[in-house]
Amino acid sequence: MNKIKTGSTFNVSLEILDNFTNRPMIIDDAISIEARIYSYKNELISVPTPEIVNQDLYPGFILLKVSGKDTEKWPIGEAYLNIKLNINNDENILKTDTYKFIIEDDTNGY
């Protein structure tokens, strides 16, 4: 299972695939991305900033970011990343799977 230490920058690269073709879905202005990170107690601990990478070079890829300053406050234990895509601001909402990871204490700086 993936792990992150408190105080570390959280950067996750994800590829969004079309459910029907299983090919990368081009991310453009018609698609809005929302991401949330929840603790094992189901408390919202962060809202990552989504960045759409160059779709000509890396079709379907997005980057989700949280600064190390924000991760310093994260509780130790399991956490869950949920992502929601909305296409054309209508009711065509796609949700990806939940991604689970472990938050470890970095008070010693290692």
Describe this structure in words.
This protein has 110 residues and is mainly β. Helices cover 4% and strands 46% of the residues. It has one helix at residues 68-71; strands at 3-5, 10-15, 31-39, 44-46, 49-52, 61-66, 77-87, 93-95, 99-104. Strands 1, 3, 4, 7, 8 and 9 form a six-stranded mixed β-sheet that branches. The radius of gyration is 15 Å and the shape is elongated. It starts with a strand and ends in a 6-residue tail after the last strand. The mean pLDDT is 89.
Key traits:
110 residues, 6-stranded mixed beta sheet, 3-stranded antiparallel beta sheet, 1 helix
Number of helical stretches of at least 4 residues:
1
**Weakly predicted, low-confidence segments:** none
- Based on secondary structure, the structural category is mainly beta
Distance between the termini: 19 Å
